[in-house]
Amino acid sequence: MMRYEGNEKLADETACAGVRADLKMCLLESDCCRLDKKTPRQCLQENNVPPECQVLRNTFYECKRSLLDNRQRFRGHKGY
Q1: Contact at 8 Å (CB) between 23 and 60?
Q2: Residue 4: CB partners within 8 Å, gap ≥ 6?
Q3: Could you give the CA distance from residue 60 to residue 53 in angstroms, rounded to a whole number?
Q4: What crossing angle do the helices spanning 51-68 and 17-28 adopt, rounded to 10°?
Q5: What is the separation of C-alpha 18 from the centre of its chain, rounded to a whole number of angstroms?
Q6: Structure letter (DSSP) for residue 44
Q7: What is the pLDDT of residues 63-78, one digit of tens each?
Q8: Residue 3 backbone phi and psi in degrees, to 5
Q9: How many CB atoms lie within 10 A of CB 16?
Q10: Looking at per-residue confidence, does 7 or 70 come out higher?
Q11: Burial class (CB in 10 A: 0-12, 13-18, 19+), 51
């Protein structure tokens, strides 16, 4: 999880925005994007990302899924 100093806030205030931002930064800092000069989408499609990014991808999936699941209404959204 990325830590923001001071009064920094994400421009995106929607649900799952924090997970999305962390996943984006993880992918951009991966060797696939930096050294191979591929886009994050290509790296995800080739499954060529580090385990930390895989965990964030799964967390992002679960967060988006919880938005559609009516049983999750009372429990709140997964993610941060």
Answers
A1: yes
A2: 10
A3: 10
A4: 160
A5: 7
A6: H
A7: 888 888 777 666 666 6
A8: -105, 135
A9: 22
A10: 70
A11: exposed
Closest by Cα among 58, 59, 76 to 67: 76
CB distance 26 to 3 below 8 Å? no
From CA 23, how far away is CA 50, in angstroms rounded?
11
Tell me what the mean pLDDT of segment 44-53 comes to: 92
The DSSP secondary-structure symbol of 49 reads S
Helix ranges, the chain (H): 17-28, 31-34, 40-45, 51-68
Q: Hunting for tokens 């559609």 — which residue is that?
A: 68
What amino acid is encoded at 49 in this protein?
V
